[in-house]
Amino acid sequence: MLASLISVLIFVESGGNSNAVGDQGRAIGVLQVHREVVTDVNRLYGTQYSHQQMTNPVKARQVAALYLQYWGRAYERQTGKRPSPEVLARIWNGGPAGWRKNSTLPYWKKVRQTLLYGGRNDSVPLRRWRQLHRQ
Q1: Which helix (H) or strand (E) holds 117?
Q2: Confidence (pLDDT) at 1
Q3: Counting CB atoms within 10 angstroms of each CB, which of 57, 69, 72, 131 has the fewest?
Q4: In the prediction, which pLDDT does 127 show?
Q5: Options 3.30.70.60, 3.10.310.10, 1.10.530.10, 1.10.10.10; CATH of 2-134
Q6: Edge-to-edge order in the sheet of strand 21-22
Q7: pLDDT, position 123
Q8: Could you tell me if 87 and 75 are in contact, meaning their C-beta atoms sit under 8 angstroms apart?
Q9: Quick one: 86 exposed, middle or buried, by C-beta within 10 A (0-12, 13-18, 19+)?
Q10: Interatomic CA distance for residues 35 and 60, integer angstroms
């Protein structure tokens, strides 16, 4: 599930553009990773990722997975509930407590739309959309 969610986050964040830059230069790569996320992952896991490496889609995915796994487990310890795609997407957008912030609801709406309809505004679910585009 996490790998699929990260793929959707990539679509929402940058449309897959590994050279994307946002938030006045503070967010980079396919997942629009902020320096604080990289610092957090390095501190939590003893890794040595650099912010500049986040233009590499493989490394950006690794950092996102580690970040979401850690903060998803923290959510589960705090609430007693497994983190849903909504919780994880809102954490990605708003930090460890993002799942509580009203400001992350519009981001979740975009992610949900992409999960359900592949980023399209019609009624073709993502599963079917992928089937149609593999041919």
Answers
A1: helix 105-117
A2: 82
A3: 131
A4: 53
A5: 1.10.530.10
A6: 21-22, 27-28, 33-34
A7: 41
A8: yes
A9: middle
A10: 12
Tell me the β-bridge partners of 22: 27
Selection from 8, 68, 64 nearest residue 33 by Cα: 64
pLDDT digits (tens, 9 = 90+) for 87-117: 999 999 999 999 999 999 999 999 999 988 7
DSSP code for 80: S
| Phi-psi sector, 25: left (phi>0), alpha (psi -120 to 50), beta | left
CA 108/CA 60 separation, integer angstroms: 20
Average pLDDT for the chain: 90
pLDDT at 133: 46
For residue 56, is pLDDT > 70? yes
Distance of CA 123 to the CA centre of its chain: 23
